Amino acid sequence: MQSMIFLFSMYMLTAVLSFLSRGISGYILIFLLSLLSVVLTKSFLGPWYLSLYMIITVIITFAAIKIGKRLLGVSKEDTDGVIRKKKAVVSILSNENKVKNAKRHVLYERSRNIGNLYENIKNVSVLLRKREIISEFGKFLNNNFSFIFCKVVFFDFENEDVNAYVYTIKKDDNAVFFEEKKMAVFSSMIERLKHRKSFFTIGSSEPGFYDFAEGSNCSVIEAIPFYIEKKMTSIIYIADLPQKQKDNFFIVASQTAMSLNRSNLYERVEHLSFVDSLTGIYLRRYFDQRAQEEVLRAQKHNLTVAILMIDIDHFKQCNDTYGHMVGDIVLKEVALRIQHNIREIDLISRYGGEEFTVLLPEVNKDLVFQIAERIRNTVEEKEIVAYDEKVNITVSIGASLFPKDGKTLATLINKADTAMYMSKNAGRNKVTMID
Question: Which side of the chain, N or C, has fewer Cβ within a 10 Å radius?
Answer without folding.
Answer: N
